[in-house]
Design brief:
This protein is mostly helical. The chain has one domain: Vanadium-containing Chloroperoxidase, domain 1 (Up-down Bundle). The protein contains 10 helices and no strands. It has helices spanning about 5-10, 10-30, 35-40, 45-55, 60-75, 75-100, 105-110, 135-155, 160-180, 185-210.
């Protein structure tokens, strides 16, 4: 599949991703990081306090289950998803330790000590290595890689293709938002993770296309 074909097949996912990237970039340019974080995280409810930790925790096991399952089913697909996840992890962890940015709890304690962040009971909070969000990177990398596989390998009708892309984007977006909801990351961290995740899949797909030739 050529690059143009890949973009066309995944245009719904990529269009929503691009709109989200642009929207977050505008918000970051308009508001300071503290104000924007409070706007995004201050929507707690009993249902959200249950759902968001569950979605966030899928990052610790779901990518491995998917990668191993794909390796057993069709090794090329497993290598594609696994390679994308490995590349995105290397980039993210390198940036984390290079930047060493404080997480919301540490940042607000220093810059806005009068503000009490809405926290979720039972969630273990982190204080450093905020930028970029490893969870957001993994979520967008995993779900976009699956989207690319399904649209390329499966004979989906136009309606089914749109539905699959919408579902996978919503899973990636809501799972990534959980990191803001739980005050584990700032919007800038999630934005960077969204970009790294999708670009990592595109890079690995490029090498797959070259090897196929």
């Amino acid at each position: 599949m050529t690059l143009a074909e890949g973009i066309k097949r995944n245009s719904v996912f990529l269009g929503l991703w691009l709109a989200s990237v642009v929207s977050l970039t505008i918000a970051l340019c308009t508001l300071d990081k503290g104000t924007l974080h409070l706007l995004l995280c201050d929507h707690h409810s009993s249902f959200g306090d249950w759902l968001m930790p569950v979605l966030s925790d899928t990052c610790h096991w779901l990518p491995y289950v998917v990668a191993v399952g794909l390796l057993l089913w069709r090794w090329q697909a497993g290598v594609f998803v696994g390679g994308s996840l490995i590349l995105s992890t290397i980039v993210t962890q390198s940036l984390k330790h290079l930047v060493c940015a404080p997480r919301p709890l540490s940042w607000f304690a220093e810059h806005m000590p009068d503000v009490s962040l809405p926290l979720t009971e039972g969630v273990r909070m982190h204080y450093f290595l905020s930028f970029p969000s490893g969870h957001a990177t993994t979520f967008f990398c995993l779900y976009f890689a699956l989207c690319a596989l399904l649209t390329a390998r499966c004979r989906l009708s136009p309606a089914a293709s749109i539905a699959v892309q919408l579902l996978l984007f919503v899973l990636a977006a809501v799972s990534s938002y959980s990191r803001l909801y739980l005050s584990q990351h700032f919007a800038m961290d999630v934005l960077a993770g969204m970009i790294i995740g999708v670009v990592s899949v595109a890079v690995v797909a490029h090498f797959f296309r070259r090897s196929a030739r």
